[in-house]
Structure formats: C-alpha cells, structure tokens
Design a protein that fits this description.
The protein is 38% helix and 16% strand. The protein is of the alpha/beta class. β6, α4 and β7 form a beta-alpha-beta unit.
Length: 405
C-alpha cells in the first residue's frame, strides 16, 4: 500500500544533514522528493569521504557513505540557481510542488527569488520549510550554524561528559538530526492544515531552538531551581541507580526505574541492607545521597560478571543491557528481526546492493516505501525536465551546454 504522503511532491533544496534527513523521512512516507543539486558538485556530502560505498568485490565506488545515509527515495536534478534560466526552471517545478524544503543561511535564497516572501503570493498553497542554525528572527539570525556549534551554544555539551572531564559533543550530530525530525513533523502538520484550509505557510526551524527544547528534563530542572546542572557522565539527574557500571568482566547499563525495582534488585543481589538504609530507601534519598550510595553500589556490581546481571535483571523485569559496538548492534537478533539493515540496488554497483539503515517507523496500514536508492548526481535530470516540464531533448542539451544543468 502507498505511503501516507503518496502524491505529495517535495522540492528539496537541502544539503549536508539536517535538511536531507528531513526530506528522506518525507520520501520514506511516500512523498515524491526531487533533490536540487549544483552542477558538477552536488550536495557537499558527496565529498565527505572516505568511506565510500563498496561494490561486491569490496572496492570503493564514487558514492560517499555519508551522502547515502540521508538521500534515499529521492530523484536528483542538477540546476544552476545563480542563472536566470535555472531560477525559471526552479519556479516551474515549485508550481507543481506541495512542499519546499531548504537549509540555506537566513536570507540566502532572496537573491534568487526563491525565498518564501518572493514565492508566497504566486504559490499560496505552498508549504515552505526553512532549516537554519538560528532561525529567521532574533539577533543571531544572520549567522551560519553548524551542528557542533549548536551543541555547544544550546548547553547540550555542558551536560555531556564525565563530571571531572571537559564538555563533550555527542558521538552523532544530534542537532542536525533533531532539526530534521522537528522539520518533518512540522511539515506534516502544515500539510494537514493545507488539506483543511487550502493555505500554505512558512515553517521556521532554528537548530538552537531545537536543541534548547531538547534540553527537556535538564532544562526544566534548571528553570525549576535556578541551579545549573552538572555533568553526570552516564548517570541520570533524577534517578539512581541509572547508569553504566563495570562488572567483573565488562560494562553494562543498569536502569532501576523505581523503588519497587530497587527492592527487587537488592533481594536478588543479596544487599537488602541498602533498602533498609534510611539514606537510600527511596529514589529521592538516593539522588540526594548519590555520592555516598554509588561507591557501595558500584562495588556490588563489580563483584559479578556481566551475564549474571544481564540474565538476572531480565528475569526480574529490570532494564539492564550490554553496551554494544555497531557490529554487535547489526548482529543483534532483535535488530535483525526488526529489519533495521536495509539492502537496495544501486546504479553505482552493477547488479549489486548497498547496505542502508532502515526507517524505524512502523505502520499497520501504510508501510514505509523504499522505492529509490540514494541517487547519483543528476541521475534524473533529463527524465524530470522531459516528463514533468515538457522540455525536448534539444532544449535539455542546450541547457546543459550553457552550464545550467
């Protein structure tokens, strides 16, 4: 069955990660996404390599793994937007699109006549989404924004890392990815509004806004108390014990979510005296007395091997698990059963397939649809101009000769 966004056309003027992750989600949901790329260069991430995807012999192709992670279910057309003819073709494509997604610096598209203010009167039903570092208003609006900068300015890095270490960014570009996620949610809401009213609108996603909202419990903890949260490493600010622990032969994550689970744990581990200790008998007290509690508790965990705790906690229904590397993740039988590794044919590999990470969305009626592998640069230019805009082969050849395509 077709995805829930089947029939929706997306004009995708995004590159790198935040915007492409958004439009890939829309494509996975059934939207027809056309990615606009610079002639001869394309999305910056085509050059973010190595690693490259490999063919069946294990040899590198020309396609970067980075680009492939967020560009499936898209068609690629090359178009020079600095040229008047390129801008005219873009407007013809926008005329038949429902959604326009871009992540240029604030104001960067105005000189091409492709900003929202230039388009809204001509295309009143257009859902136009901008993803920038700081949004389209406020004193920082003109500034460029990059993931690591936003992680730093949003306070995220001040919360990440060991208590006696330095602030750390996440191991993944969470600011980019969360901006793409919020943008996809907002676009779907705007499409529903358009369905009800016929009216499009501008969506303004600022990455600093996104990561300020992402502070969630720690942000609210600060607003409630006025106290700046400290880095806790792998620990939880409001629940104890809830973190990584060393066992006799490795490392595990243990998340004891409430006092009932804490009692079950102590009965299993033979440390019921901790439940009877008035310093530790409730989660509130364990949080307040964290420094006294953790050395005692850590020694208990360290006395037994990982399997002892993993099997024991599973029987008790207490969250406990290994700290996997990515090989262990993709080898995990549950991850495999959920189909999180996706294989798709790719034109860079003659008769072969590439490995991608599947969408985590599961629908009972409108399944995620993997129709197209990440496109090669300009792969669909001729098809789109011919079939959708009605250009002749001679016209297309002429545009290519002028450097427009």
């Amino acid at each position: 069955m077709a995805g829930p966004l089947s029939g929706i056309r997306v004009f995708d003027l995004t590159r790198v990660l935040a915007g492409p992750s958004c439009t890939q989600m829309l494509g996975d949901l059934g939207a027809e996404v056309t990615k606009i790329e610079r002639p001869g260069a394309g999305d910056d991430t085509r050059g973010f390599a190595p690693p490259f995807i490999r063919d069946e012999r294990g040899d590198d192709t020309s396609e970067s793994s980075y680009f492939c992670c967020t560009n499936r279910n898209k068609q690629s057309i090359t178009l020079d937007l600095t040229a008047a003819k390129g801008q005219e073709i873009a407007r013809q494509m926008i005329a038949e699109s429902d959604v326009f997604v871009e992540n240029f610096k604030t104001g960067g598209l105005a000189k091409y006549g492709l900003d929202y203010a230039s388009l809204k009167e001509e295309f009143p039903g257009l859902v136009y989404c901008s993803i920038t570092g700081f949004g389209h208003t406020g004193p920082y609006a003109p500034r460029p924004g990059y993931d690591v900068l936003i992680q730093a300015m949003s306070g995220f890095m001040s919360l990440t890392g060991e208590p006696d270490g330095t602030p750390q960014k996440a191991g993944l570009p969470v600011a980019d990815l969360m901006a793409g996620m919020y943008a996809a949610v907002a676009i779907n809401a705007a499409l529903l509004h358009k369905q009800k009213t016929g009216q499009g609108q501008h969506i303004d996603i600022g990455m600093l806004d996104v990561m300020t909202a992402f502070s969630t419990i720690q942000g609210i903890n600060y607003l409630a108390t006025g106290e700046i949260p400290a880095r806790l490493g792998n620990a939880h600010p409001n629940i104890v014990p809830y973190q990584a622990f060393k066992t006799a032969d490795g490392d595990i994550i243990l998340a004891v979510g409430n006092d009932s689970q804490f009692r079950k744990f102590c009965d299993f581990a033979g440390c019921s005296h901790l439940v009877d200790d008035e310093r530790f008998d409730t989660n509130r007290k364990r949080v307040l007395n964290r420094d006294a509690f953790l050395p005692i508790f850590t020694a208990i965990i360290a006395a037994k091997p990982s399997d002892y705790w993993l099997e024991g906690m599973r029987e008790l229904g207490i969250s406990c698990g290994p700290i996997n590397n990515l090989k262990q993740v993709f080898d995990d039988p549950h991850v495999q059963a959920r189909g999180m590794k996706l294989e798709m044919d790719h034109p860079a590999i003659d008769g072969g397939k590439i490995n991608l990470i599947a969408s985590p969305m599961r629908f009972s009626e409108t399944a995620v649809d993997y129709r197209r592998p990440p496109p090669m640069l300009g792969q669909h230019t001729d098809d789109i101009l011919r079939d959708r805009l009605g250009l002749t082969p001679e016209q297309i050849d002429g545009l290519r000769a002028e450097g427009i395509l």
